[in-house]
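Hey,
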Amino acid sequence: MDKRALIIGATGIVGRNLAEHLHGIGGWDITGVSRGRTAPPEGMTSVTADLTSASSVADALKDQRYTHVFFTAWARQATERENIAVNGAMVRNVFDALGPSGTLQHAALVTGLKHYLGPFEAYAQGSVPITPFREEQGRQPVDNFYYEQEDRLFDAAKQYGFGWSVHRPHTIIGFALGNAMNMGQTLAVYATLCKETGQQFVFPGSAAQWNGVTDMTDARLLARHLEWAATSPNARDEAFNIVDGDVFRWQWMWSTIAAYFGIEPAPFDGETRPLENRMQHAADEWKTIAAKHGLAEADIGKLVSWWHTDADLGRPMEVLTDMSKSRKAGFLDYQSTPDAFVALFERLKAQRIIPA
């Protein structure tokens, strides 16, 4: 068979960039499953399904034959117990529908560094591994829906005989609308609000993040990593970290982002000031900005994820990732993180999401 990809979560920050990458390199027939709330990327056949419903998934994927599945979706719940039940079922529903076809060669699952840190409600409560995080450091002794998703993937791969890979990015920089975890776009909107309203561009996070060394993941690099693992024998049945390959401190990056938008960063006084607590008037302010500049989206709720940006920048510990395993297996790609931010900001301008 030709390479036939099914992307679960195809309009999200990972799925969209993966679809664009596979379409750009050619040789892939691409189908995406999403909730149908945003327009699909170019070159992809779109399928709408409720991933939490086994019957909905079975109906949507009935009689379909795919060689590669990329699972890039999750559904946020009130507690981690609920996250485990719902997100584990989503993975199981997909492979219950596709596994019996006998055509699957490889399935990739995207999780993240909460594999090492623990979930949001139990952040760093276990014995957090020494940085930089390495794949062999294993799981934390806390409930974590990432582990449930992995186990459902492993069970399906064993039952149906396909290979798998697990991908653990750090905070992802990339273009997507309506995404639950989108720091780059959130910071672009925040900087625009500061520029337009005269607010100070205040770092919302912790002293540990301001002063510590960290890294991030460009969604386009992650897309290339997913495609590499899906087609490389060296990546079969392995879990990999995936980050850009450079490191930085937020005290430098914050000034770099501020300079791009032509604003002055506020001095950092060591206090954590979450965005979610300070953005009560942002929705109305954004409507005014959108009308003034003719922006494509006036609903700020579809653009930002204050809570997720606060969670990542508010971490009380260093978060840094090792890429040796991927390098040794043959993935040698690299992405400058400052350039990743600039590329996103330029795309947001071109799409009239923020003012040019």
